[in-house]
Write a structure and sequence with these properties.
Blueprint: E1 7-11, H1 16-27, E2 31-38, H2 44-60, E3 64-68, H3 78-97, E4 101-103, H4 108-121, H5 125-128, E5 134-135, E6 138-139, H6 147-156, H7 173-188, H8 193-222, E7 224-226, E8 229-233, H9 242-255, H10 265-273, E9 283-286, E10 290-295, E11 298-303, E12 312-316, E13 319-323, E14 328-335, E15 346-350, E16 357-362, E17 368-369, E18 377-378, H11 379-385, H12 390-393, E19 397-401, E20 404-408, E21 426-433
Parallel strand pairs: 1-2, 1-4, 2-3, 4-6
Antiparallel strand pairs: 5-6, 7-8, 8-11, 9-10, 10-11, 12-16, 13-14, 14-21, 15-21, 16-19, 17-18, 19-20
Length: about 425
């Protein structure tokens, strides 16, 4: 959890748990500092907490960092907003001053309360065992310590602490759970409820870690990256148990940058439904700007992009034109030599069959195309046969002479414009990365 080389930033509110955390770090001779975020929610009481914590840091002889946060809108979720503000503050201070670890004062009581809150809201095992002892650069040294033990420790050292009056406000779900629900359950069902639930969380935590390792191993084998997209083969998921598929999908979303906070069970089920036959071309929108799409035999997780705007540019022959929507430059050159090394981004056209310029535009539904060596038909059908994902088709470049399609990038030239034996000159069109 901590090594002698770590610089530790301790999050201290002034309450018993965080004061205990700082004292323990001092006893362990850790290199640490104290950070305090004043949410300014309780007027003078909040300022007194900051002053208490500042003096406490001076007494311990450690650096002190503080910031005053703006009061929250009472219509917002104050608890969630407070957590986010603290997380951002601590990470910023740690990055700016070179701290390798951030120590939070969550206790066993906090973990059990979170377990019950998430259980009541509806959660899988990942949510039920949140508040891991170590998560990235965040550590929780007191996570196996109960609150009564902490208060006894402080009293034995004549150490004062601050009590947040909002800790007794029944408007907050955690307070109702702490002061009403848990005591009632303990009195009526199990006097050793906290010990029992602590053991339950420990069991679930070990099983969750085991399942997480299995999931990571599966992803290492099957998940691939194409540019920024995460791609999962459908056939590798088809026979997997539903619970494992859900874990794979959540992990893939996390790989793509989601924190999963607002991703619901129903959304995961909708994504899982894309594995079923007949779902190619379908997609599911995920909070946080992500999209999961079924593209032929794969599930693709990507950042959601706005639909491509229509574009149209004139390309003179000879000449070149930059198309910013594609990040490409299209060129046209007239040649009078034999050349037939056509590729996906290069094609040759009979110079006598074409005028002084062409237009380059995006694909339109209804476009009809007769490429050399392939059956003619709607361009949409050619895209499907070439297994070009639906999301890539909208901005696909089409070169047009008057109303006739000359060339569609990545396909052969149109039959009407292909060079013939008597052609003396050719036009070579090429698409280059800008």
């Amino acid at each position: 959890m901590l090594t002698a080389r770590d610089g530790v930033l301790a999050a201290v509110s002034g309450g018993a748990d965080s004061v205990c955390l700082a004292l323990v770090l001092k006893e362990l001779k850790c290199d640490f500092a104290i950070a305090h975020l004043n949410h300014a929610l309780r007027a003078r009481e909040s300022n007194d907490d900051e002053e208490f914590t500042r003096h406490f840091a001076d007494k311990l002889g450690v650096r002190f960092f503080a910031r005053v946060g703006l009061p929250f809108n009472r219509e917002s979720n104050i608890e969630a907003a407070g957590r986010e503000a603290r997380k951002k503050f601590f990470q910023e201070i740690a990055a700016e001053h070179g701290f390798t670890k951030i120590a939070l004062a969550h206790t066993q009581n906090d973990r059990i309360e979170t377990f019950l809150l998430n259980l009541l809201r509806g959660s899988g095992s990942e949510g039920l065992v949140s508040m891991a002892p170590v998560s990235g650069n965040v550590v929780r040294p007191l996570i196996e310590t109960r609150r009564p033990e902490i208060e006894a420790y402080l009293k034995g050292r004549n150490q004062e602490w601050r009590t947040d009056s909002t800790n007794f406000d029944p408007a907050f779900a955690r307070n109702r759970l702490r002061h009403v629900v848990i005591p009632e359950l303990a009195a009526k069902f199990n006097p050793k409820l906290m010990e029992t639930l602590a053991r339950t969380v420990e069991i679930l935590d070990a099983e969750d870690n085991w399942m997480a390792d299995l999931t990571d191993g599966w992803l290492a084998k099957y998940l691939t990256k194409h540019n920024q997209d995460c791609v999962i083969p459908i056939d590798a998921l088809e026979s997997a148990p539903p619970g494992f598929v859900r874990r794979v999908l959540r992990a893939a979303l996390r790989h793509s940058g989601s924190d999963l906070r607002d991703v619901s069970f129903d959304q995961i089920e909708a994504v899982r439904g894309l594995v079923n036959p007949g779902k190619s071309g379908k997609s599911v929108e995920i909070p946080g700007g992500l999209q999961v799409a079924r593209e032929f035999g794969s599930l693709v997780v990507r950042r959601r992009v706005a639909p491509a705007d229509n574009y149209e540019y004139e390309l003179k022959i000879p000449g070149s034109v930059h198309i910013p929507e594609l990040g490409k430059v299209f060129t046209a050159k007239i040649i009078d030599m034999e050349a037939n090394d056509e590729g996906g981004e290069r094609v040759f056209v009979d110079a006598e069959s074409i005028g002084p310029y062409v237009r380059i535009r995006n694909w339109n539904p209804g476009d009809y195309y007769r490429p050399v060596g392939l059956p003619g038909g709607k361009l949409k059908k050619l895209f499907q046969r070439a297994r070009i994902p639906r999301g890539h088709r909208t901005g696909w470049p089409v070169i047009v002479a008057e109303s006739a399609i000359v060339w569609v990038a990545s396909f052969p030239v149109s039959r009407e414009f292909a060079p013939r034996g008597h052609s003396e000159k050719k036009v070579v069109f090429e698409a280059l990365r800008s």
